[in-house]
Amino acid sequence: MKINIDNNSGFCWGVVRTIDIAEKSLEEAKDGNIFVLGQIIHNPKEAERLENIGLKSITHKDFERLAHKGAKVIIRAHGEPPETYQKAKELGIEIIDATCPLVTALQKRIQKHYLDGWQIVVFGKEDHAEVIGLKGVCNGNVIVIQSVEQALEKIDFNKRTILFSQTTMDKPTFHKIKEAIEERVTELIDEGELKEQFLAKDTICHFVYGREDNLREFCKQNDVVIFVAGRSSSNGKSLYHVCQSVNDKVYFIEDHSEIDFDWLKNANSVGITGATSTPQWYMELVRDKILEKITN
Length: 296
Ligand code: SF4
Prior knowledge:
- By secondary structure, this protein is α/β, with parallel strands linked by helices.
- It has three domains: 2-10 and 209-295, Cobalt-precorrin-4 Transmethylase, domain 1, CATH 3.40.1010; 13-99, Rossmann fold (3-Layer(aba) Sandwich), CATH 3.40.50.11270; 102-166 and 170-203, Cobalt-precorrin-4 Transmethylase, domain 1 (3-Layer(aba) Sandwich).
- The chain has 13 helices and twelve strands.
- It has helices at residues 13-28, 44-52, 63-66, 82-90, 101-115, 129-136, 148-154, 171-188, 194-197, 206-209, 212-221, 234-244, 280-295; strands at residues 2-5, 34-37, 56-58, 72-75, 94-97, 119-123, 142-145, 161-165, 198-200, 224-228, 250-253, 269-274.
């Protein structure tokens, strides 16, 4: 049996940057006073590795406890709303900003359109950290939707509307939503006025959708595919569905102990791949666990 690790998998640029910032901050801090707000990335294995070298995860509620004690708090790639920065400033907490620059750029774009009077709609998950940050830059005035039905129900079509996307959502659904809004708006306006009344900006990260074609190819080339990701990873779910669309023997795991070796029966090739937050070292460990089992 051949075991192949997907060459195109592993961390995206934004996650590499966040991990680098965290590692450097830990190296430089002599007093161990480095914290991260939330889980550094949506992968428990990598989060655990960083915890083992001293990174402590906190929530917003811990800010008061850390006030004026020289604490440094890392903002992870998903970003945070402005009030987090404000609160840290008031409490004498130093922020180390590891927000992915693509997310920062999206926050700025959304805020600009909000200030220009557009009704802001985001295709995303209401409670996802990135979306909370996006809402924060518009004082909460963002309509968050995940489907065509929600779009038609929640949007006020009398208002000038702009649609954006959380960076890790799936493109086909974004385009379905865009078309449905366009259709509805077109019914209400005069011909030629669509661009003044509705704009759609596909802000899905190219590190996520850019992987889709390669991923489909990889899944077609392997009899069985083990998809490794954190269960809370949004792009993990999205990329897993991409794999399932071309191979019905794709299995999602977070931990190598979840592998059922019956899955691999009669397989000539097993592919290992994952989300943009899945570390290479963990996929290698999954490969070694499979090798260990099949060679014993
Ligand atoms: S998926 Fe894209 S937006 Fe998200 S952290 Fe990675 S590079 Fe940044």
